[in-house]
Automatic annotation (TrEMBL):
Organism phylogeny: Bacteria, Pseudomonadati, Pseudomonadota, Betaproteobacteria, Burkholderiales
InterPro entries noted in UniProt: AB_hydrolase_1, AB_hydrolase_fold
Keywords: Hydrolase, Membrane, Transmembrane, Transmembrane helix
GO terms for MF: hydrolase activity
Name of the protein in question: Alpha/beta hydrolase
TM ranges: 12-32
Superkingdom classification of source: Bacteria
Pfam families reported in the protein's UniProt record: Abhydrolase_1
Domain AB hydrolase-1, residue spans: 78-215
Length: 282
């Protein structure tokens, strides 16, 4: 009995240490800015003109973005990427939106790529607001001509922005309901919902969104389970569409590239104003 109690005590202590470590170090489990510090390529490498833009956030952090114009653009997309890599890993989005007739602003979070600062939940929201202000105020795009696009973690970022502003449309790719819900799926042996200090509550934001929403998700997603996409879709109150992708979390858009392009183009044509826009800086 004494040995058993010692074993149980040691196990309990180890489990408590694990919980403390997860609570204190969860930022390193959520953000991976070092996975892709190197800039791999630019839109110029795929034949697209682009401009490097340096934005200053409301809390005085300097962040990078790439602006890729499209001729006679129908509007502009603002992309918030996932929790790993940087904007140089998302150049294919520039090609996608260019072919659809939209300009694109690729946003780099604080602490990622060449941007200053350290990533945080409040910080990523501030980064997105700085990008929105740039498009509306400095470039003069009407809000109804702006498409907010978020992949994975970025979905929570732009959903919050869409809830606070009035974009023309919102596109969520492989996004999750919230960090506590995702953590509970990924770590079922931990009281994950109670341990998480980050919220990124995409579901709550969607309940305040009034613009049309496109949800894209794969049943084979091994990181963000498919039911997250289904729950997000169910929460949308206004016009909406769902695109079922194929493949894993990081390669679904490769497997579904043509279907993704066609469905996204159809969605934007249906819900955004037609004709080119001539933005006038304010």
């Amino acid at each position: 009995m004494e040995i058993l109690l010692k074993v149980l005590g040691a196990g309990g202590a180890a489990y408590a240490a694990l919980l403390a470590g997860v609570f204190l170090l969860q930022g390193s489990l959520l953000y991976f800015p070092d996975m892709g510090r190197q800039m791999l390529r630019t839109p110029g490498d795929v034949g697209l003109d682009y401009e490097t833009v340096w934005l200053t956030t409301e809390d005085d952090v300097r962040i990078e973005a790439w602006y890729i114009p499209a001729p006679a653009a129908r509007g502009v997309a603002l992309l918030a990427h996932g929790n790993a890599g940087n904007i140089s890993h998302r150049v294919d989005y520039a090609l996608l939106f260019h072919r659809l007739g939209y300009s694109l602003l690729l946003l780099e979070y604080r602490g990622y790529g060449r941007s200053e600062g350290k990533p945080s939940e409040a910080g990523t929201y501030a980064d997105a607001r700085a990008a929105w202000r740039h498009l509306v105020t400095e470039r003069g795009f009407p809000p109804e001509r702006i498409v907010l696009v978020g992949e994975s973690l970025g979905g929570a970022v732009v959903a919050r922005l869409a809830a606070d502003e009035r974009p023309g449309a919102l596109v969520l790719a492989s996004s999750f309901v919230s960090v506590p819900e995702l953590a509970a799926d990924l770590y079922p042996w931990l009281p994950a919902r109670w341990l998480t200090r980050y919220r990124y509550d995409t579901l709550a934001a969607l309940e305040r969104v009034s613009c049309p929403v496109l949800i894209a998700h794969s049943p084979q997603d091994e990181i963000v389970p498919f039911h997250h996409g289904e729950r997000l879709f169910a929460a949308v109150k206004g016009p909406k569409a769902f695109l079922e992708l194929a493949g894993g979390h990081n390669d679904a858009f490769l497997f579904s590239r043509e279907a993704w392009r066609v469905e996204l183009g159809r969605f934007l044509e249906q819900h955004l104003p037609q004709g080119s826009v001539n933005p006038v800086p304010r």
